[in-house]
UniProtKB/TrEMBL annotation:
Entry's family note: Belongs to the aldehyde dehydrogenase family.
The UniProt record lists the keyword Coiled coil: no
Any one biological process term the GO annotation gives: L-valine catabolic process
Keywords: NAD, Oxidoreductase
Keyword NAD attached: yes
Entry protein name: methylmalonate-semialdehyde dehydrogenase (CoA acylating)
InterPro entries: Ald_DH/histidinol_DH, Ald_DH_C, Ald_DH_CS_CYS, Ald_DH_N, Aldehyde_DH_dom, MeMal-semiAld_DH
Enzyme Commission number, as recorded: 1.2.1.27
Domain Aldehyde dehydrogenase: 13-475
């Protein structure tokens, strides 16, 4: 049985814990590895190593840091197939989706390699007579990241490359449900030249999360995951004086106007609603059909019925959910939808896949006539379930979306530039797609979820990540080249 190792001060070692968590293949329930509940002593060792490494890493030339990530992106590309296979085995998503998971993280690594252009301060000459002022962005110290099960490659790569590139050291806690691809990425980071103590990895559940939030030497915490845990992390980390950013749950809507390109829209809707078995915080889980687009119901159902569910390694359309508990929760929520009066027009419960009868499979599921007071609308289902709602006009659709507390992403499908402009201007959601269902920006921008989907002012990766992982120091300087020309000045002026 493989036991997942930790990384502390440059050494991959097995934990001394007596508490181990099973990692199972979601398609078979076979135990494929065990991950430790890292001990408090080991967490303290990791933080101490990071604190020591910070004293030299913070002064390492920025070009040296950049070259490490140039090498790192090269290694990730070389090992793309291996990384995707590891990810699929422990997480369940299809091989194609696993490659996409790794690739979107790789884009952030590439961005981190340009840190010399991102971490530039400001300079103003002669702000007063003979006085110059300039600002510099300096690293915070030891930072930490807590990542979810659904993107075990991409989201760790959102975090530690930007933190390390800006001169910080890092403590990473991967999801205890699928940490193996994360650890392989960490191994490649060490191979690329990340020094001892600069990147450390600890494992476990709530006890490890709380230890990270409480540790006085950790200056900032980045989190992606469920709303309940996100609130816990934000409150606990903030209470101990840390910076915190928490990307949390969502309920993303797609608004379809009658003039939309029908075939393109249907294809994108099916992919965004059911891809990754719906286990995305950016899944398009609600569609609002405006006016005559309400006639597209049968077409939406037909697209969903053509999707193939199988084990991820078979590389079909949908893989299994992460765990039996996740499957039970999704099926329970489907049941509440029926009980509360929604029209179940496609039921994905009870599906079995030949050769993988024990898998956590739920097939594409569609509800029509969903209302905003139903549980299936109010909760993030995190499964392949699409809720269909109706609106008489674009104004009514916008009002519906803005009444929902979440703000991760939304999309509009239309051929009208005027309608698209009105939508992007009036909608109160942080990320908007126009004829594009999952509007996650590339790393030169930043993930900009909002409202109940986010706690903290700054998002991960991109320009906002540089701000999150640095503190601004302003220097005002005057140099004298002659004798004092005036006496003591007791006023506030320079």
């Amino acid at each position: 049985m493989h036991h997942v190792q930790q990384l502390i001060n440059g050494q991959f070692t097995q934990s001394k814990t007596d508490e181990w968590i099973d990692i199972t293949d979601p398609a078979t329930q076979e135990i494929i590895a065990k991950v430790p509940q890292t001990t408090n002593d080991e967490i303290n060792q990791a933080v101490a190593a990071a604190q020591t490494a910070f004293q030299t890493w913070r002064k390492t030339p920025i070009t040296t840091r950049a070259r490490i990530f140039l090498k790192y992106q090269e290694l990730i590309r070389e090992h793309m197939d291996e990384l995707a296979e590891i990810l699929t085995a422990e997480q369940g998503k299809t091989i194609a989706d696993a490659r996409g998971d790794v690739f979107r993280g790789l884009e952030v690594v590439e961005h981190a390699a340009g840190i010399a252009n991102l971490q530039i301060g400001d300079f103003v000459e002669n702000v007063a007579s003979g006085v110059d002022t300039y600002s510099i962005w300096q690293p915070l110290g030891v930072c930490a990241g807590i990542t979810p099960f659904n993107f075990p490659a991409m989201i760790p790569l959102w975090m530690f490359p930007m933190a390390i590139a800006t001169g910080n050291t890092f403590i990473l806690k991967p999801s205890e449900q699928d940490p193996m691809v994360t650890m392989r990425l960490v191994e490649l980071a060490v191979e690329a030249g990340v020094p001892e103590g600069v990147l450390n990895v600890v494992h476990g559940g709530k006890a490890t999360v709380d230890a990270i939030c409480d540790h006085p030497d950790i200056k900032a915490v980045s989190f992606v995951g469920s709303t309940a845990v996100g609130h816990h992390v934000y409150e606990r980390a903030s209470k101990s004086g840390k910076r915190a950013q928490c990307m949390m749950g969502a309920k993303n809507h797609g608004v379809i106007l009658p003039d939309a390109n029908k075939e393109q829209t249907l294809n994108q809707l099916a992919g965004a609603a059911f891809g990754a078995a719906g286990q995305r915080c950016m899944a398009l889980s609600v569609v609002v059909l405006v006016g005559a687009a309400g006639e597209w119901i049968d077409d939406i159902k037909a697209k969903a019925e053509n999707l193939v569910v199988s084990a991820g390694k078979n590389d079909k359309d949908l893989g299994p959910l992460i765990s039996p508990a996740a499957k039970a929760r999704v099926e329970h929520l489907i049941g509440t939808g029926v009980e509360e009066g929604a029209s179940l027009i496609l039921d994905g419960r009870g599906i079995t896949v030949e050769g993988f009868e024990k898998g956590n499979f739920v097939g594409p599921t569609i509800f029509d006539n969903v209302t905003s007071d139903m549980q299936i609308y109010k909760e993030e289902i995190f499964g392949p379930v699409l809720c269909i709602m109706r609106a008489a006009s674009l104004d009514e659709a916008i009002e519906l979306l803005n009444a929902n507390p979440h703000g991760n992403g939304t999309a509009i499908f239309t051929q009208s530039g005027a309608a698209a402009h009105k939508f992007q201007q009036d909608i109160q959601v942080g990320q908007i797609g126009i004829n594009l269902p999952i509007p996650v920006p590339l790393p030169m921008f930043s993930f900009s979820g909002s409202r109940a989907s986010k706690l903290g002012a700054l998002g991960p990766y991109g320009k906002q990540a540089v701000q999150f992982y640095t503190q601004t120091k302003t220097v005002t300087a005057r140099w004298f080249d002659d004798e004092a020309s005036r006496g003591v000045n007791t006023t506030i002026s320079i």
